Amino acid sequence: MRFDYHMHTPLCRHAVGHPRDYVAQGISVGLQEIGFSDHNPMPVSFDDWRMAPDELPAYVQLVQEAREDFPDFPIRLGLECDFIPGYETHLRHLATCADFDYLIGAVHYIRDDWDVDNPHKRNLWRELPLEEVWKRYFALYTQAASSGLFDFLAHPDLVKKFGDRPSGDLKPYYEECLNAAADCHVALELNTAGLRKDVAEIYPSREFLEMAHARNIPILINSDAHAPAEVGLNFDQALDLARSVGYTQLPVLKNEKNSIPL
Ligand code: ZN
Ligand code: FE
Ligand code: FE
Ligand code: ZN
What we know:
The chain is an alpha/beta fold. It is built from 7 helices and 11 strands. A 7-stranded parallel beta sheet has the order 1-2-3-4-7-8-9. A two-stranded antiparallel sheet has the order 5-6. A two-stranded antiparallel ribbon has the order 10-11.
């Protein structure tokens, strides 16, 4: 059984393809289930990579159109929610605005003006030591894990996207957020999109994943597709990685069974 619960729609302005094209691709690569999770709207216009504040109904409608085209294929409705301190109430409100199957928590912003994965913000990386960028990112990821707002968390070490890593032992950066995810029973995502970025590596790193496995944190394998051809992409590599650190199960969202064999 394979599923992919992280994919986008053109409403975020940096993805292409109607959801029905993502579903068709998912079926053709052997997925049994698919879930959309576009970037969440903010209360007011916020940046140029998410749906507008009033576009949530349009998003639900796009997913509904895919469901109408593929009535026998399970299509879930989710949302990739930016965890930004101060917006918790907004996210709680959003959760009630549609019939969501799940919410993904993500950290992109490490400062009001700095989405750390944005190639147009690379100039900001000169303002802080790399160690501080990593510390901020993982401190926020820890808060996201503890917030109780999310079913699982996206791309755990997204901060490595451009290939910059502090020297030395990276475990201390990972420890707190992993302890929080374990304590709060939040699953984590093994996200193959990292393979398509400068870092050319799955999010998270093997070392991070080993630490997650040691804490019995469930993982899901997702593509973070921003185009139909990316649905389910590189899942064999992700499955190999998960198995090689000892994972034998994948959690299932909102099904009778809690997990399935990997
Ligand atoms: Zn995106
Ligand atoms: Fe993201
Ligand atoms: Fe995403
Ligand atoms: Zn993403």
